[in-house]
Amino acid sequence: MMPDTLTVAPAAATSSVLSLASGYGHFAVPAVALAAATAALTTAGQHAEPLAVAPAAGLPALRAALAARYQRRGARNVTAENVLVTAGAKTGLFAVLSELLKAGDDVLVPTPNWFGFSELVRRAGGMLRPLPLAAANNYALTPEALRAALTPATRLLMLSNPNNPTGRVLSAEEWAGLLAVTAEFPDLWVLSDEIYEGISFGATPVPTLLAQPGAGPRSVVVSGFSKSLALAGWGVGCLVAPPALAAAVTARLFATGVSVPTPNQLAALAATEHAEEIGAALCAQLKPTRQLLLEGLAALPGAGEVFAPEGTYYVFADFRRFLPAGLPPAEASALLVRRLAAAGVEVVDGATCGAPGFVRLSYAVPETVLTEALARLRAGLVAE
């Protein structure tokens, strides 16, 4: 399975390529998480004992802490029975897709969306069906558009909130309208990927699907610790699902893999217990580079309104005005990305997310790197 850093064409014209394509932020490991993992390893070393192997569903203390956090966020019916710990969010996502989908089942995905969904759905036996949204209205998904796209054959509606790559956040009011529609389809599941929920610059916290009054017994949330809690590389994710589905996914994971190492789960437990503090620190770290990127994009030739993303650490920049003429959109978009790579900057091609001519740019990089990358972007885009 591909990582959340899409492979792009290597640069030929520079010896040092700067990446704004990575899905992982340039964040220090939270001290509380590092201390918890270190303590577990130190104890094992001091007593000459093996590390404890966690249950397939995860450490009970971590599952309880995650359930308590969802309860504090308004999902009052979530208990530890609903929660399981997975080896990264993608492992949990693939496991739940494999449980829910039969060969040929439709999965409706509003686009632009994360490029990894398509391969996960395909490998689970489903058929991904995009529901294109428009940049012009900031990617609004209306109940009317959703109702028109759903059919009795649609097994799953899958969204990301905040959205990767656009940074768009679904509000509680928007959730209410969408869930009123999904309630008309009793066999439909709704899955919300909320891995970026702690990276938010809005006036209110990102609302979880599980806290919405219209969230029914077929609602699932997938999340993880690599984005909002700065535990990239630790391989810890989580899944919150109805008890029967959670038990089925646990059995699948037990049969096909191993549980997340205990020190990693203890690090995740410490991060969960300090989630608000960690998230606030990450957002404070990101604010200067967020502003720098928005200003740099607004200064490019022909720039129109640049939507400030409410969540994630990406800007989904509209570069359609720079596309070479006379080519199919996907081909022109790929050529533009190669042009930027030749200028020394790696970006994610928006065509892979369902929006050719756009590029996903990360601002979760050091300010010096972003400053140089913006200079290279400008040079690459305006070169004759």
Summary of the model, kept short:
The protein has helices at residues 31-46, 60-72, 89-100, 116-123, 143-149, 172-182, 243-256, 262-273, 275-298, 329-342, 367-382, and strands spanning 18-19, 83-86, 106-111, 127-132, 154-160, 189-193, 219-224, 237-240, 314-318, 345-346, 348-349, 358-362.
Jot down its keywords.
three-stranded antiparallel beta sheet; seven-stranded mixed beta sheet; 11 helices; 384 residues; disordered N terminus; alpha/beta
Structure in words:
The chain is of the alpha/beta class. Helices cover 38% and strands 14% of the residues. The strands form three sheets. Strands 2-8-7-6-5-3-4 form a seven-stranded mixed β-sheet, with helices on both faces. A three-stranded antiparallel β-sheet has the order 9-12-11.
> What's the pLDDT, averaged over the residues?
94
- State the total count of DSSP E strands: 12
Portion of residues within helices: 25-40%
Number of helical elements: 11
- Binned strand content: 5-15%
Rg measurement, Å: 21 Å
Structural class: alpha/beta
Question: Going across the major beta sheet, what is the strand order?
Answer: 2-8-7-6-5-3-4
